[in-house]
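Hello, quick one for you while I still have it in my head. A protein chain has come my way and I'm curious about its shape. I'm sending you its amino acid sequence along with the backbone structure tokens. I'd be grateful if you could look everything over and explain what you see. Here's the protein in full, and shout if anything looks odd to you:
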Amino acid sequence: MSSQDTPEEKLPAVQETEHGAVGVADEKHPFADPGLPPHEHRVQDIDEEAAKRSERAVAFLFTLSMVATVAFIVSYVAIPADKSIYVFPIGHLSALNFALGLSLGLALFLIGAGAVHWARTLMSDEELVDERHAISAPPEVKAKVLADFKQGAKESAIGRRKLVRNTMFGALALFPLSGVMLLRDLGPLPGTKLRHTMWSKGKQLVNMNTNEPLRPSDIAVGSLTFAKPEGLEEHDEDFQTQIAKAALMIVRIQPDNIKDKRELDWSYQGIVAYSKICTHVGCPISLYEQQTHHVLCPCHQSTFDLSDGARVIFGPAGHALPQLRIGVNDEGYLEALGDFSEPVGPAFWERG
């Protein structure tokens, strides 16, 4: 139903304004002012029943948003963090994350949809003209405001009462710290957890692919092998957290080609072990150049020389890769002789 199908007596009265008239071009104003187009009434403007239907539709959308918000809260409390579900065609997902994302997304979408439907059908859609005026205040107003400010500053005695002024500034500067303290509830402080990994004296080096302990004979010259600490299994609850710090890459280099003395001392028959975590933003390093003994991070091309203490020779990484001191136990397997020489990964202050 449109305004053309409605009897004229039911249409709201239209106010005549000078802006609705079409201007005429002249020498002073070469472009005519066409004014505003004729206003077309919506069905809700002329039919109260249609307006009530729109009102109920908006209320229904807002009500669904409330239901979605309640679903978000229930999901957060009731769904276990380790539960997974299969969603076609995406695959297996965390049930908690899926429920939280779906319910929160619906809640926000329905609020937006209700607001848009409200504005399009029930709020006034008539265009109004507001003539521009000077934004700046007149000179006399500016002078009066400045004079009032100076007078207020003088009467407050802020210049003479230094004790009051300084303590006020101190209170204002200190008060925002109360809001900063609330950030403590975002999670436990890392402490020194990021300074240490699962590697310790006596931990065997286990091949990431075969899940078997490594012997020196398993490491060929020029090969790149990835290892994990003994006792860390993929089904462990904290596997991802631990492997993100303890991931190890092992390379065998001819001892004569090792330039760094400490690297040679911490190796075993030319077998060197370094952290696999790039010191730029924590990407896993996976590319090895056999002839030069360089390893490359695929994320931002940071390049490290494994024959010279894994120092940075190219890219944005800030420092060398940490080395793990290794040896051989009584059974002939490679083992760690301690933890990494320094915290692994990027040089973020969060490392503790």
